[in-house]
Amino acid sequence: MSIEQSLRSRSESKCELCGAAEGLKIYEVPPAANGSADQAVLICETCHTQIEDHEKVEINHWRCLNDSMWSQVPAVQVMAWRMLSRLSSEGWPRDLLDMLYLDEATLAWAQATGEGESVAATVKHVDGNGAILEAGDTVTLIKDLNVKGANFTAKRGTVIRGISLVADNPEQIEGRANGQQIVILTKFVKKSS
Question: Among 2.30.30.280, 2.30.30.40, 2.60.200.30, 1.20.1260.10, what is the CATH number of 121-191?
Fold first, then answer.
């Protein structure tokens, strides 16, 4: 039996993610795809396009995952987890993702492509010289900065200890200067060694 025949039999000739019956194709689930039906899913053209091109994702199309995420097929579970992770900034995908249980091997497969990594894990804060900044680092200002709302100027050479990173903005850090908590642009600091 060919892979396509196996997948059509397993899925009853429907998209294993959304249930569509038209335009079905084999999608080998990366990175573990080895050409077997166990590591592939049968999906429609709409699902395939949106999986491959992040810009074309229509969030309401993926409400179908409410049903397909309960599949007993690991490859389907992996694709449901990846799409829910990709959409997790919305409310309902986050709720579904919280309900979805994957065994350790399946979860490792789902995470193998980097899908679902938190923004904090992918955002890098770098100083004016290109050194990577981490929470708790000590930095020195390389320029006089007028602090808005606090009516003082943080002078060049001021040392800021124990910085914190702004999670969703790689160009900003926070720290204390003159007893005030301030936001500082990373391009105006140098990491102290």
Answer: 2.30.30.40
